[in-house]
Amino acid sequence: MTETSAKRRAADHLVDLLIEQGSTHVFGVPGESYLPVLDALHDRQGDIEFITCRQEGGAAMAADAHGKLTGRPGICMVTRGPGATNASAGLHVAFQDSTPMILFIGQVARDMKEREAFQELDYRRMFGQVAKWVAEIDDPTRIQEFVSRAYRTALSGRPGPVVLTLPEDMLYDDIVVPNPPRRVTTPRFQPSPDAMEDLRARLAAAKKPMIMAGGGGWSSTGIAALQTFAERQDLPVTVSLRTQDLINNDHTNYVGHFSVGPTPYLKEALAETDLLLAIGPRLGEMTTQGYSWLTPPVPAQDLIHVFPQAEELGRVYEPTLALVSDLESFCCAAANWEPIAKERFITRTKTLRAAFEDYISPGAIPDDPLAPMFTHLTDTLPADAILCNGAGNYAAWLHRFYRYRGEGSQLAPTSGSMGYGLPAAVAAAATEPEREVYAIAGDGCFMMSCQELATAAHHDLRLTVIVVNNARYGTIRAHQEREFPGRVSGTEMINPDFCNFARSFGAHAERVEALDGFKTALSAARARGGINLIEVTQDPLLIAPGKWLT
């Protein structure tokens, strides 16, 4: 082969590399700063699909959701300046949620740098705090080096987002293609044998141990091993904020999740726990109720913290025992242990399980009209249905009354970002077209990314949006009433007719007020397929499960 025949345009080489690394979708908004990449994608439509989104924040959130679902970096492409700043919302989600993601940004031409050219920004300064690595590919011969490193960085240790900028003139260059790349896989590293023996001894001496699982970077093998470990030792399993799908919520060892709001029985259980085995969570503000249920720097409990990145261990809480390990390797090692003190733990696990079942029963708050609707979702939807949500008081009902029973069935931002549900549902429907996909949103949350209904229609996706409408920013109103009772400021809203809005995109839509109507609308949506929207009217005075402003 001659040197001439071996040459390839830089943009084509970039797309080839994405395909060779196993990426199947790119979520983005087209821009003139990366036109050659769009042209290269045209020739590879059977290998990788460009999902045309309607706002870069939605594209980045969709890429985050794709990364959560697949365990491989979600790919997002946006143009420079306004496109990049819009995408920062999804980049922040990926960083706080420890999701593998690569954001490609078209950049000004190399000969225009440092002049504040049209839409020019310094992305190293801009994204330095919300990305694991930010770099610019000035030399097209190094594209493969940078892309391989980006995948490796996004997947290694604590997973997270990487930003690569692409000067637009560089993408036109012809280069000699290097040797084919090696596909990057998630590195696995075992916990030290001495640390595992220490843990085993501490578990044997404990009276009231508890597992708290969470964080990013979980694999199917790791999730299965977590369940096996819990079963063999009969340990109660809790999960951190919005990671409820790490274990089947119907499993007898699952006893609940640490959410935004306090869960009374879990507060009591954590207070009496003498050994907390934290596998994967960072133990952040939401999970610890403002760092109050666990007191830094040295918590009252013996804290055994398992995390794939050494720098995180001891960052806030000083652990009794720190284990640097990927989560799959740790759980697989622990799952092989013989029962240690199962007979000592079984009664407490059963007691906590009973408390969990009482807490999620709609009968616990009989006058709440929303609780039975979310319980009905559990009773009706298949275990592998994917439920996506953003932030708002509506999520309190979802997280309390819906039971997640399948791996990858929850897509929700631990960063607390509004507007996440619909873009995540778009990504889920594109990535897993055989599974049922639902976006759950409040009216405020939905309006932050409602334009992505156009994306769903454009790509002929199947998903259902459930909008809980109380015509206000409900979470902020609840805080407002607590701090400044009766002084409403900035939290009231006027909404469009959501049903007619959805119909304008070709969706079917129904408005319901009570459980019977919700059951009928959900059944029709499931049978119909395509895009559906169900608007649920919520009493504005209902601000949380069982709690009214009055």
Task: Describe this structure as you would to a colleague.
This protein is of the alpha/beta class. The protein has three domains: 3-176, Rossmann fold, CATH 3.40.50.970; 193-359, Rossmann fold (3-Layer(aba) Sandwich); 362-548, Thiamin diphosphate (ThDP)-binding fold, Pyr/PP domains (Rossmann fold, 3-Layer(aba) Sandwich). The strands form five sheets. It has a six-stranded parallel beta sheet, sandwiched between helices. Helix 2 crosses helix 3 and helix 15 (421-431) runs parallel beside helix 17. The longest helix has 18 residues, at 342-359. The radius of gyration is 24 Å and the shape is globular. The relative contact order is 0.10. The mean pLDDT is 94.
CATH level 4 superfamily of the largest domain: Thiamin diphosphate (ThDP)-binding fold, Pyr/PP domains
Number of E strands: 22
CATH topology of the largest domain: Rossmann fold
CATH top level of the largest domain?
Answer: Alpha Beta
Low-confidence stretches: none
Q: Which keywords apply here?
A:
single chain, Rossmann fold, 550 residues, 20 helices, 3 domains, six-stranded parallel β-sheet, globular, alpha/beta
Question: Topology of this protein?
Answer:
Elements: H1 3-6, E1 7-9, H2 10-20, E2 25-28, H3 35-42, E3 49-52, H4 56-70, E4 74-78, H5 82-97, E5 101-107, H6 123-127, E6 133-136, H7 143-155, E7 161-167, E8 174-176, H8 193-205, E9 209-213, H9 220-233, E10 237-239, E11 254-257, H10 264-272, E12 275-279, E13 302-307, E14 321-324, H11 327-335, H12 342-359, H13 371-380, E15 386-389, H14 394-401, E16 410-411, H15 421-431, E17 437-442, H16 443-447, H17 452-458, E18 463-469, H18 474-483, H19 498-503, E19 508-512, H20 515-528, E20 531-537, E21 542-544, E22 547-548
Parallel strand pairs: 2-3, 2-4, 4-5, 5-7, 6-7, 9-10, 9-12, 10-11, 12-13, 13-14, 15-16, 15-17, 17-18, 18-20, 19-20
Antiparallel strand pairs: 1-8, 21-22
Helix pairs in contact: 2-3, 2-7, 4-5, 4-15, 9-11, 15-17
